[in-house]
């Protein structure tokens, strides 16, 4: 037997165990999934996405899906249109995969705090934000409406104010504060025993007007807990059975009854309405003041004549907007538009997401 010195060995004499986990050659080419089926996301539940395939046809069906690894951390929210592969039959126990998210027409979000730019996505592809607030029980708080308006304007989404419980208090005083904004509104109340065919289950007066506003649109309901969002949804889409709750006698605030966002189709309509959980804070840390100004395109053009660093607020020195609006350069609605912009810009400056 010939003995070999250490110097006689090289790397070819060393047995290397193959790394099984990395043995498959990697490629940057991703599958195109040209056979993916389009679906609309209607709910998110513990790592599973509930979707609707073949929307608006006789073949419409519910399909449960999981997120494909290639999507990374891209948020998938109710209202999203996605591409599905795998088993899209919708049979019990089957699971499809979400492999792509289609380009969104709008994307509503909020942050936990005004100095926290981390976005919390709410819904996608909506064209109407329905801000629901009660006139009493709980008491209305305009801060929530102002903040929702900022988020809606920045996202390019129309806004509608719905005032509930008008049987407890007249809406005139509250609406007067929003008249300068030109905000569209609907007022609802419970039917009185004399009006109701079934006193044990009174209907909602004003529901038909609301239904007309929502028809053919993709809407999202936003508001505090206890303001009546779930009651409206149950009336709009019978059989929904969204839980409704009472207002706390001590805090004057509602209890969370909806724990997750849910998209529902309006009966006999191609419209959708998305109910969201009641929120206790609505941060705007993801919104840049310039984004809000851009939402007021007529004012944004005029603001180019302002000095550098101008905040465009009422106390801003040498702000050109005042004089230009006074001259009529912004049109007949100029003063109203400027007041509306400054009101919402003040919301961003206050930096208090709990002022809702």
What does this structure look like?
The structure is a single chain. This protein has 356 residues and is an alpha/beta fold. The protein has three domains: 37-101, Nucleic acid-binding proteins (OB fold (Dihydrolipoamide Acetyltransferase, E2P), Beta Barrel); 107-275, P-loop containing nucleotide triphosphate hydrolases (Rossmann fold, 3-Layer(aba) Sandwich); 289-350, no CATH class. It is 21% helix and 22% strand. The chain is built from eight helices and 15 strands. The chain has a six-stranded mixed beta sheet with strand order 10-9-8-13-15-14. The protein has a five-stranded mixed beta barrel with strand order 1-2-3-5-4. The longest helix has 17 residues, at 334-350. The radius of gyration is 27 Å and the shape is flat. The N and C termini lie far apart (88 Å). Residues 245-258 have low confidence and may be disordered.
């Amino acid at each position: 037997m010939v003995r070999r010195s250490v110097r006689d060995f090289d790397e070819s004499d060393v047995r290397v165990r193959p790394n099984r986990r990395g043995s498959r050659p990697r490629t940057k080419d991703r599958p195109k999934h040209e056979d993916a089926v389009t679906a609309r996301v209607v709910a998110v539940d513990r790592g599973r996405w509930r979707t609707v395939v073949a929307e608006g046809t006789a073949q419409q069906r519910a399909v449960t899906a999981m997120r494909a690894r290639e999507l990374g951390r891209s948020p998938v929210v109710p209202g999203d249109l996605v591409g599905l592969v795998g088993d899209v039959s919708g049979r019990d126990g089957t699971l499809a995969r979400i492999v792509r998210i289609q380009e969104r027409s709008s994307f509503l979000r909020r942050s936990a705090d005004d100095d926290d730019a981390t976005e919390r996505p709410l819904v996608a592809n909506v064209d109407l934000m329905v801000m629901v607030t009660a006139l009493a029980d709980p008491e209305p708080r305009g801060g929530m409406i102002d903040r929702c308006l900022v988020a809606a304007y920045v996202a390019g989404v129309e806004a509608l104010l719905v005032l509930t419980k008008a049987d407890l208090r007249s809406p005139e005083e509250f609406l007067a504060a929003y008249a300068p904004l030109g905000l569209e509104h609907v007022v609802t109340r419970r039917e009185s025993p004399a009006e109701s065919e079934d006193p044990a289950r009174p209907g909602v007066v004003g529901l038909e007007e609301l239904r007309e506003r929502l028809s053919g649109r993709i809407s999202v309901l936003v508001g505090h807990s206890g303001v009546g969002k779930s009651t409206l949804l149950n009336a709009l889409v019978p059989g929904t059975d969204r839980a409704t709750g009472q207002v706390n006698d001590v805090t004057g605030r509602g209890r969370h009854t909806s724990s997750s966002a849910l998209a529902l189709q309006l009966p006999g309509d191609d419209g959708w309405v998305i109910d969201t959980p009641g929120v206790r804070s609505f941060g705007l840390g993801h919104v840049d003041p310039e984004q809000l100004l851009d939402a007021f395109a007529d004012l944004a053009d005029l603001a180019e004549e302002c000095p550098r660093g101008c905040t465009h607020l009422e106390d801003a020195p040498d702000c050109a907007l005042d004089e230009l609006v006074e001259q009529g350069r912004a049109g007949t609605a100029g003063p109203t538009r400027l007041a509306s912009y400054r009101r919402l810009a003040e919301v961003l400056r206050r930096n208090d997401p709990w002022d809702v």
